[in-house]
Amino acid sequence: MSEYRVCTRCVMDTSAPAITFDGNGFCNYCTEFLGRLEHARALEGDKPARLEEFVTRIKREGQGKEYDCIVGVSGGVDSSYALYEAVRRGLRPLAVHLDNGWNSELASHNITRLVESLGVQLYTHVIDWEENRDLQLSFFKANVVDIELLMDNAMLAVNYQQAAAFGLKHILAGSNMATEGMRIPAEWTHFKYDVRNIRNIQKHFGTKPIRTHPLLSTIDFVTYEFVRGIKWVPFLDYFEYDKQEALDILEREVGYRPYPYKHYESVFTRFYQAYILPRKFGYDKRRVHLGTLVASGQMTRGEALALLATPTYPDPAQEEQDRIFVMKKLGFTEETFEAYMNAPEVPHEAYGSERWLWNILAAVYKRTRA
């Protein structure tokens, strides 16, 4: 077993199996991130001019349509600020939200405050709860690491579907280099367009057909992006995005209320990231999220290490409340949940994957761009 180490520049550690360190103790994750960040900034040029040109193009292409762009909203800071800036720049977005039955009360509050304060229309796709429950239980039974693949894939699908339905070319996402640019270790997550993996796991373990749960395959993505010309745009990269500054603006302007950590707007995501992922699989995603903020200069390393020294659940009472709630909602007993937590991990690839197709198409695309 290799010696435990923490990067001397960010906060990534040897819980990431493929981590390496240079002579300064800097890890490959923040080194790669800073290289891409420097490259991106070199290509950006005059950000205000680029933003003005981009917004003008969206307005022009959206003339005569009910909306001119899509903004997916989860209730989190990044997507909320993307919606805020879209409206502030004079765009007419349709806000799109996916409800899989796990919204926290705080997320519902934030989304309501956003759409009411900004005067935008909200489309919510509601997944049938019994279907979603059956799918999630299948992923538990499969013992794969990325249970959130279900929600992430569905969220992508709903946004592309709504863009296509209204003839729109731009999905303005809260994804951005400044707070999300560091690569998540491959062992902590899974390929997000892997519909084959989802279908095979459900076929193997599930009891219900997939009917209301949106799906986006590799071919679907290629069709939307390259045939229909619908672009998923990391909108916040057009700004000098500072997460704390964005949070202050949202609190002041729309009555937004913050979460303790990234992606805690969903009760299940909170429990998955703060309880299941670290205890069953040994991964703390806060290291990637906080490490990105440290590397991009939005937080000191000391501040990040101090946060990592605190429990993934800041409130023990909230942890127990969430544990009981999730078990009851999914139908676990204490015994069956404990058996799941103690079962060994099974790789996603054991159930089949379409990652091979993505790799082939990505290689072809890279050659045509060379």
General description of the model:
There is one protein chain. The chain has 16 helices and 5 strands. It is 54% helix and 7% strand. The protein has a single domain, classed as Rossmann fold (3-Layer(aba) Sandwich), CATH 3.40.50.620. The longest helix has 17 residues.
Sequence-ordered SSE layout with sheet pairings:
Blueprint: H1 28-44, H2 47-61, E1 69-72, H3 77-88, E2 93-99, H4 105-118, E3 121-126, H5 129-142, H6 149-165, E4 170-173, H7 177-180, H8 195-205, H9 218-227, E5 231-234, H10 243-254, H11 267-281, H12 286-295, H13 301-308, H14 316-330, H15 334-342, H16 355-369
Parallel strand pairs: 1-2, 2-3, 4-5
Helix pairs in contact: 3-4, 3-10, 5-8, 11-14
Compact summary:
The chain is mainly alpha-helical. About 55% of the residues lie in helices and about 5% in strands.
Q: For the residues shown, what is the average pLDDT?
A: 93
**What ranges have pLDDT less than 50 throughout 5 or more consecutive residues?**
none
- Supply the helix-strand structural class: mainly alpha
- Rg measurement, Å: 21 Å
- Percent helix: 40-55%
Main CATH class: Alpha Beta
Q: Would you identify the CATH architecture?
A: 3-Layer(aba) Sandwich
Estimate the global geometry from the Cα principal axes: globular
- For the termini, the CA-CA separation is 42 Å
Q: What is the count of DSSP helices, taking H or I runs of 4+ residues? A: 16
* Full CATH superfamily name: HUPs
- Domain count, please report it: 1
